[in-house]
Every structure is written in structure tokens, then in C-alpha cells.
Amino acid sequence: MKGATFGEVFAVREFKVIFGSFVLLIAGDGIKMLALSVLVYERTGSPGLSAAAYMAGWLPFFLGGLFLLSLADRLSPRALMIAGELIRAVTCLLLAYAGLPVWGMLALVVATGLFSPVFFAARAAMLPEVLPGDAFVLGRSVLNVASAGAQIVGLAAGGAFLTFAGPPGALAVTAGLSVVAALVLRFGLPYRAARKAADQGAVRQTLQVNRRLLADGRVRGLLLAGWLPCVCLAGAEAMVVPYLGGQGQAGVVLAAAAGGMAVGEFVVGRFAAPALRERLSMPLAVLLGVPWLGFAASPGIGWAAALAAVGAAGLAYQLGLQRRFVDAVPEDVRGQAFGLQSAGLMTGQAVGAALIGGLGEVIAPGQAIAVSGAAGILVALALARVLRPAPDHVAAAPPAAPGDGASPRQEARRSRGG
């Protein structure tokens, strides 16, 4: 199968709209959670509550992913993405100016965050419809690179807005970004109908389809391959702050990790052919853990940043799984499948951070980071059968027909009901 190019990806108008709204989303979320964390700390003086506020936006992914994901296939994707932006805008304005108590602010973020996996799933599931064939994988690479850059820019911009306008002003800026993104989506994307009719309750259907997806050995293996190595990476990154004594140097190391991720995604996405990309999944997944072993030698900030950058570059292993995942899931539940992938990833990273954080209470932070790296290597080796593509997998998948949003395998799947 011929590999796509960045020029071909950005030539698709719908992708440019998805890309622009996604950058606004990630940057806005970075500003929002930073501003909320500072606002809570100003009111309470509690580091624990401030940290809880920073993580509150991600915690609902588990519940939303468990009970609500079927909405991603039962409703129009454009409507869902617009609804997500408007809900975020209203939430930010309420946090900034409604005078809510701290518990009320946290409850609001958690309640509105329950639908976040649905909004993310609608965006992710639309991508293979907009970008056929290998262009889909390259589109995912572009979004991952943009995510890393937008996180860095969002945190930096959030700090600037906090300095000049305070937390309410920073939250108002996020609300404005969300409104702009909603307008971009409304006038930039054409209407697309829902993939699946609402034939039962959303919660029941979500549970039923989740069981169906997890019962499929191929889908389950690809989900675990996408989740578990990242669990170990999150555990390592969670210990960077205590490793450096809580100093601002931790930001340098974490920024280096984000930069390494962006470089890895760009290089593998741009220069590796589709077949090579899939063969690289195994060695890159191992690379995700190896550099963190170096923290057992207590490196200084320079070496720590270099190790973190090299390790995070291994995240490009996921590019070799994306096409196989699209081929493996039935088209009529594609939105829920991508939502389950995202919700499991978010939940797993929180679990990994908690587990290695607990280990860091018993042993030195550098040793805990090294343990996390070793766990990542073992996980990659245990998942070797999934990470290594079947022989002739890519060769067996001819290019999708121009203008079609699915691969030929998916077309065949349509004829037998998904």
C-alpha cells in the first residue's frame, strides 16, 4: 500500500477543520485546568485540593467510557463536537464568575467531564471517514504532534494569562477559544448522519457494545497494546517532580518528553512506509521503557531530560496499531471503539501514576522511575504477538477507493453486518 504524505492530508478541507479545532481544544484545556488549579489553591491553600482540581477534568473518563460511549455513534459527529465546545465554554464561565464553592467547582468539572470521552470519540471516529487508507494513520500522527505542541503552548499561555488576568481571566479566554472552535466546526464541517440507530438505552447499549468489543480477541489485544505501555510511561512521568525535589526543573524534563513524543510521531509518520511503521511497533514499544532505566543512576537534569525525550519518542509505536484497529472494529460502532480506546488510555495513565506514586513512598523516586521503565519493557515483550503485525498484513490491505472513508476490509465487513 502506498504511503500518504502530509500534503495529501492537509489538502483535505475537513481534516484542516478537525485539526484547527483540535489544537484549540488541547490548548484551551491546558489553560483551563491550570487556571482551575490555581484558583482552588488561592481559595484553600491546599496543595492536595489544587492537584485534585488539576486532575478533575480527566477523572470522569472512566465513568463516561463505561456508560455513555454509545452516544458517539447514535448522534451526528459534528453536533457532538460542537456540543462539547459549548459545554466547555459554559463550564469555564461558571467556574470564573459564578462564585461557586470549591466543592461545587470540582463537582461541575467532573459532571461535565463525563461526556468528554463521547466528544473525543466522535472526533476520532470521523478521522478515517475523512482520510482514507494510510492517510488516516498520518492524520493521527499529525494530531498527536499537534497535541504535544498545543499542551506546551497552552501551559505557557495559561501561565501568562494567569499573571496578567488572574484565574477568572484565563478561564474566560478558554471559553472564548471554545466558542471559536464551535464556530469553526459548525461552518467548516458538512453534516454527517449518525452511524447507528438508537434501538435501546444509551447506557445499556454502551455496556453491551463494550462487552462485544472486549470479547473480540483481536480488538482486545490491540486495546491492551495501546494502553499498557502508556500506563508504565505515565508512572515514570508522575515521579519526575518528586525526583527533582519538587523544583521547577521538572517542567524542563516533562517538556522534553513532550518534545520527544512530537519528534517520534513526526519521523515515523513522515518517513516510515506503512509496512515498516507496523514492524516498528514492537521495538518502539520496548524503547518506551528502556531510557527510564537510566534514572536508577540518579542523572542530573540534562541527562534526565534527554532520557525522557528518547523514551517518549517510543510512543510512535501506536502509529503501527492504528490502521489495524480501524480494520478490526465494526464500522457501526467505530465511535464507541475509539472512545473505549481513549477512555482506557486516560484511566490507565491515572492508575499507572497512582501505582508508581505509591511505590515512590517506599523507595527512592529515581528507583521507582527505573521500575516503571522495566515494567514497560516487560509489558512490551508480553504483547509481542499483538505488536508484531501478521505476515503480509499491509500487503493484504489494498488502498481504499478515492473519496471513501473506510478500507476495503471495512467495505467487506459492511456487507456482512459490521
Automatic annotation (TrEMBL):
<dbReference type="Pfam" id="PF07690">
    <property type="entry name" value="MFS_1"/>
</dbReference>
<feature type="compositionally biased region" description="Low complexity">
    <location>
        <begin position="394"/>
        <end position="408"/>
    </location>
</feature>
<feature type="transmembrane region" description="Helical">
    <location>
        <begin position="221"/>
        <end position="244"/>
    </location>
</feature>
<dbReference type="GO" id="GO:0005886">
    <property type="term" value="C:plasma membrane"/>
</dbReference>
<feature type="transmembrane region" description="Helical">
    <location>
        <begin position="170"/>
        <end position="189"/>
    </location>
</feature>
<feature type="region of interest" description="Disordered">
    <location>
        <begin position="394"/>
        <end position="418"/>
    </location>
</feature>
<protein>
    <submittedName>
        <fullName>MFS family arabinose efflux permease</fullName>
    </submittedName>
</protein>
<feature type="transmembrane region" description="Helical">
    <location>
        <begin position="52"/>
        <end position="72"/>
    </location>
</feature>
<feature type="transmembrane region" description="Helical">
    <location>
        <begin position="362"/>
        <end position="384"/>
    </location>
</feature>
<keyword id="KW-1133">Transmembrane helix</keyword>
<feature type="transmembrane region" description="Helical">
    <location>
        <begin position="250"/>
        <end position="268"/>
    </location>
</feature>
<dbReference type="InterPro" id="IPR036259">
    <property type="entry name" value="MFS_trans_sf"/>
</dbReference>
<dbReference type="GO" id="GO:0022857">
    <property type="term" value="F:transmembrane transporter activity"/>
</dbReference>
<dbReference type="InterPro" id="IPR011701">
    <property type="entry name" value="MFS"/>
</dbReference>
<feature type="transmembrane region" description="Helical">
    <location>
        <begin position="280"/>
        <end position="297"/>
    </location>
</feature>
<feature type="transmembrane region" description="Helical">
    <location>
        <begin position="103"/>
        <end position="122"/>
    </location>
</feature>
<feature type="transmembrane region" description="Helical">
    <location>
        <begin position="17"/>
        <end position="40"/>
    </location>
</feature>
<keyword id="KW-0812">Transmembrane</keyword>
<keyword id="KW-0472">Membrane</keyword>
<keyword id="KW-1003">Cell membrane</keyword>
